[in-house]
Amino acid sequence: MAHAGADRPIPPGSAPRRMSSGMRLLLGNEFGLAVLILLTVAIFALTLDGFTSPFSIYTIGRQIGIDTMIGLAMMAVIVTGGLDLSVGAIGVCSAMFFGWLMQVMGVPVLVAVPLAVLFGAGLGFVNGFTVVMSGVHSFIITLASMSIFFGVMIFLTRAAAFNGLPPQVQAFGKMRVLQGISPLLLIAVAVCAALVVFYRYSTLGRQMLAAGANARAAELSGIRTGRVIVACHMLTGLLAAIAGLMVTARTGAAVPSMAGQLGQDWLLPAFLAPVLGGTLLSGGRVSVIGTLLGATFINIMTSGLLLMRVGEFWILAFLGVMLLIAVLADRTRQIFLTSRGMI
Amino acid sequence: MTALQVSHVSKSFPGVRALHDVSMTMTAGSVHALLGENGAGKSTLIKIVTGICKPDSGTVSMNGATVRFANPRQAAAGGLGVVHQERNLVTRFSVGENILLDRLGNRALSLVDYTSLHREAEKWLKLLDLDVDPRTIVSRLSVAQMQLVEIGKALSLQSRVLLLDEPTASLTPNESKVLFRVLRRLRDDGVAIGFVSHKLEEVFDICDRVTVLRDGRNACDSAGLSQLDRNDVVQMMIGRAERITTRAPRPGTDAAPYLELRGYGSGAGHRDINLTVRPGEIVGLYGLVGAGRSELARAILGLSKQVAGEVRVLGRAVHISSVAQALHHHGIGYVSEDRKAEGLILMHSVLANGGITIWRKLANALGLLRDTTIAARVGPVLTRLEVKTPSVHQITGNLSGGNQQKVSVAKWLAAGVRLLIIDEPSVGIDIKTKAYLHDLIHELAEQGTAILLITSDMPEMIDVADRILVMDGYRIKGEVGNDRSYDPVSRAIMGLIHDRAAA
Fold this sequence. Notes:
The complex is a heterodimer. Chain A is about 70% helix and about 0% strand. By secondary structure, chain A is mainly alpha-helical. Chain A has one domain: ABC transporter involved in vitamin B12 uptake, BtuC. Chain A starts with 20 loop residues before the first helix and ends with a helix. By secondary structure, chain B is an alpha/beta fold. Chain B folds into three domains: about 240 residues, Rossmann fold (3-Layer(aba) Sandwich), CATH 3.40.50.300; about 140 residues, 3-Layer(aba) Sandwich (Rossmann fold), CATH 3.40.50.300; about 80 residues, no CATH class. Helices cover about 35% and strands about 25% of the residues of chain B. Chain B is globular and about 70 Å long.
């Protein structure tokens, strides 16, 4: 087979060679983010007093853990090309359920945690099932469910916080392990590791990516895309519930307003972390590590700006600008992929 | 008179020399074929002419003056119209709006004058023999009519050079005839027409001159077609003579049917379908576009509801409600006609596409599986199909059309399906790969796979199928035994289709 050109048959037994790994590295956001993080940390550490104090490092790390979790929750549904506006509502509802289980029902902490996490997955199921059955875009469905979940929760709890949680909960939130690291950050890192394995090595994870990249092709290849999309929403709910429990541990109480009205305060980090990290908004490609790095970057910037006494409202504006930049990067990536015939 | 001249154009992309010293001269009042296998450089040449790509060296000139279009808009303004393979119409707008889309109004807020717009559009529709009201919404048109609207759109820009990229790919023979009539008239009016096609019959039917590209070089530069015959052209395209069908008719089989439909009706609109496919048999399903063939394939896979009759797999009545069930329980696979939208996940790797059908089977108790496990199953199939890729981790979208098609077949072979439904296997595929796929289909049948072949390509049907079911209007009109003699078989098939018109 004499054939001029770059193509050639696969030589038997050849080691898998990645196409231009340099390009891949630059295409992904992880590399750029890592450089950016190192730069900002260096600048803040040199110019700002107290940025590197043990307390500052501890609180930044703890918040990175929580924001990573929120970002992962959104990432799990962005995989399908959809989104979930109700992540905050699910997180708060699961946290309130967690508080109710312990304070009212007297359920021990170690039992309440898995129950609350499953509760979050259940709310995710409601979202996913409605999205798949109705065929309506997840934007509308989760806009509705956000209000419903939050509204019902406020009605049931009379908007009152659960303050009498077992002391272990708050102790966990204040705990320092390995010389000053919050266990909340460690949990987030562990969940990241589990998700990397999940998307790379599990059948369901691969099916999620396939259904997200091209649902019709996936369906015609024997994947039950409907079920897979429901599973994506359940994973989102589950991760959002974990994030809710982490916030509960930090505050030491389950408070209805912990994520703002309707849980909307979570939406900015929820989109920023994965999109900065290089998860494709149109679906089919995730970056778990990128989400962790994205959450890290926004928290370092936020903390640095706070130490510089920049007003909170400016920080919000700054995060908004970051989101726009990240979305533009996402568009550029898509145009690049389209021009190479990959979408 | 020379309308468009490409002189000594070269173009390299990273790692690939796409064009090397290519020339082409298009004359006003002539239809010029641009031929070549996939990857020969046709698309790159069109991109350079229309300003999507810049040549590394060489020039493009129109009417004697060198042009350097920065983008297709400029090219259109300069009198160079292109009709691409993909539809570029706004389907929710009217025919008239589409034709004059970029001239709806002078300013952003000026109102559109619909009366004069539709009058103007009507002029172009008349020229194209297209008998539709310019107020019709484009989505109501047939594919062929849309094609003509696109040509009208290109012509309305006063194009004196018109490039058509595979204009007949989705047209029926009759629709193609209409198109050709229009093209001939345009030619007589002095338009220079460039015509890209994989169908050589059409090329000899309508073109005067031909430029053939092979591996990015001129195999011939604007030669007169009258001095060439089909074999010459094929030889230039692939560097050797076309293999003429020598496949003998295969002996019939009396094995128990693998799939049997009896009085089957589907939610998609099929009625009274009777069909059997036996192991080792290649059953052809011929029909014009819109006859309901692909829809029948989808219905069998469970994508439409069964509303009447019976479906039997190996003699047992079954209800198939999803592709997953068809694949995992009944061993049925489907190679889609629309490779890009349905057959493959282009942004994922070759390995992910080849293994998608067997992930479930290969996963361990925890639902986990490794790339190496999948590669062990998919690798041999890719090697057997001679898929050309630098590695199995290559992004599928980077492969050539022929290799992509092989991957979309490979996933079903990896899954070891017993019945393979193959829908238009050679759309957008070069001659070499096409012949290869035909051999492969025969080989699979020899090994006992039941094959249901859907194609609108008559020579392909007669070359490959054992017997041919003719479909029209979501019904089976009859069956034709295939003894590989082209004229009688094709006449019998067309007879069955036109039976409807007579009745």
